[in-house]
Amino acid sequence: MLCLENLNKISTDPTAATRKQDHIHLAFQSQVENALLDPRFSYEPILSKHPDEALP
Hints:
By secondary structure, this protein is mainly α. The chain is 39% helix and 0% strand.
């Protein structure tokens, strides 16, 4: 739970805006472009549920 004292610290933080931009920049840098995907791996299972039956 945030208390009033912590809210005051957050709102007066002079680096808050630059930190937000840094986080956005790092998020874009962490994205894997389609050209960089390794064709040896299937990335789709990451988005799927666990299989109901055993894999071969």
